[in-house]
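Student: Please help interpret what follows.
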Amino acid sequence: MAEDELYIERLKEKLDTIEDKELLSLVKRLITERNRLQEIANIDPLTGLNNRRMLSRIREFSGIMMIDIDDFKSINDTYGHDIGDYVIQQIGRILKSSTRAQDQVCRLGGDEFLIVFVDCPEEVMAKRAEQIKFNINKYVIIPESNRTVTTSIGYSYNYTHANLAQVMKGADVALYKSKTDGKNQINRFEQFLPTIDEGPKLI
């Protein structure tokens, strides 16, 4: 728990000891407003998903998946940024509906998304990746066009209790391979080993 969150929790525990009703009401309003502002700060306004600030709150996780829209610049250049925003929103909805309540879906920015899987077997992650790739290609269609959208996906499973940055780097390298191998692909990476400074390996 972050230091400011711990402070708020301790403050809540002391609310019953405040005898001044006006002061008590003010403190409660301040806590409510602080929580509202914090929620806004952690949400991507275009998709309603978490933004990258969410990553600082992650403590335990099974694996990381990164998703990137193929040829997104071409979509923006050909159809305009409004259509680009529409594509991002539709993909955000599919990612949210393809994950469980305990998983965290995040828009990193631009056309890149990240999913943090919690208490999830690797085979389930692999199936989710296939499902996400299929659903985006099938259901995200550019308006007034027959053009469909594809995505490249990379994921890394946390076998060795590595830190978030290590597992994210593995997923990012997997994503890069999906892109360079022709896009519209999924790649899985062997998890970093904490005692070896060689980077992830393709398997």
Summary: The helical segments are 3-13, 21-41, 72-79, 81-97, 122-139, 164-180.
